[in-house]
Amino acid sequence: MTRSSARAALPWLVIVAAFAGLSATVRAADLPFETATVSRQMVAEVYVADAVIEAVNRATIAAETSGRIKEVLFDVDDEVKKGDVLLRFNDKQQRARLAQAEARLREAEARQREAEAEQKRVAGVFAKKLVSQSAMDKADANLKAAKQRVAAARAAVRQAREQLNYTVVRAPYAGIVVERHVEVGEMARPGTPLMTGFSLEHLRASASVPQNV
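Request: output the structure for the sequence above.
Response:
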């Protein structure tokens, strides 16, 4: 090809190249595309560790009175409901103490009624100037002492009744018995462990995690 013919062919090459570029542009514009917004955020890291599942409510029930174990109604792995009777003590001594306390209370109440009647009688004659001030003071003191004895006797009855109630041990909540610490016939005193159990209602996972995690 001569130089003159090359100059003549150059415009045609430019036109062909322009059409080729236009065709490629049209084809690229026809392709579907999506746009997205780029944002910065924290990415949580996941660490896998072995954990131990344990109960939130786990307790050892201890004796609150003294006596010999009469009956054990549940054993290890038994499921219990709240309020179920777990075991019973021999309650002969507790019943005897309650009966004595109630007898003393009745006696103290009788003495109080007598002291009230006497104080009322003395107050009547004292108003008429027929007895001395010391006699009136004595009647008042006797009545006060009688009332104090009644209060003490009532407290003793409450304590004796409480000790009797302690001879029946109940489950504080629903759960599973995991340990039994006593057998029938054994003696127990306040503080002696009786049974251990836990509740299945609330559980938690306990795991060791390195400080650099």
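The two ends are 76 Å apart (CA to CA).
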